[in-house]
Amino acid sequence: VTRSTPYTNLPSVVLVGPPGAGKTALLTLLERGDAALSTHTSQVPQSIELTVSVDQHLSFREAVKDDAPGEHKKFLLVDTPGHGKLRNFAMDSLVAREGLKGIVFMLDAATLDENLAATANYLYEVLLALQKRVSSVKTSKTPSAINVLIAANKSDLFTALPATLVKSNLEAELGRIRKSRSKGLLASGVGIDDVDNGENDDWLGEYGSEKFTFGQMQEFNLEVDIVGGSVTEAKVDKWWHWVSERL
Ligand code: GTP
Ligand code: MG
Fold it and tell me: DSSP 3-state helix, strand, coil percentages of the chain (rounded to 5)?
């Protein structure tokens, strides 16, 4: 594992998500093999270079070894600050980055009840930016698929919601955000015709649908998975395999 310059053109996976979710803790675990005892609020993005074994289903601990079997692939894992005022780093990396293979949106499943609105608001921004990236391509060539993993972290804590509940809570909240945003648009004088024509480009997912589901993002070539885990307990192999399969 080596720290690398941001100038390499390796494929990359970007870590985004609200403050305190455990993004930097995950980066540290994958880099050093153990999670740091304490992390600081991130203020700038940081990247590390990691290696996966392509055709072997190795755990992350086995995979980072230099002598791991099978074909190897290197990639950059990019950690971004979750603070609301520093999200431009994350948003820029989603839109501009060449070779972006996947996005890991990490959240704290143990405090999701309290942080649902804030977490879903950020997720809405992320998914909308990706949706626009796909829908703004004017050629007939289908843009390549973008994969998003919602990593529901901190499953070691007893208050942590299981992935199924994280999913349904987020879907309900994203649906509420979508509805209130479209009302805001109407109130701000955007003609109802524009909205009916599907020109409301703040609308996430299937246009006009009553309920939001992550499955609606497939229309925009976005695949969303939700998987639980715990950085503290080093239960990150399902996330690791998700990443490996996207490279
Ligand atoms: P920002 O840099 O502010 O965006 O936050 P971050 O997502 O990088 O969070 P960070 O990695 O700094 O972790 C925040 C806190 O959560 C730290 O105190 C970690 O030790 C703790 N933490 C991370 N993962 C876990 C986990 O799986 N379980 C528990 N219980 N705590 C965790
Ligand atoms: Mg951080």
Answer: 40, 20, 40
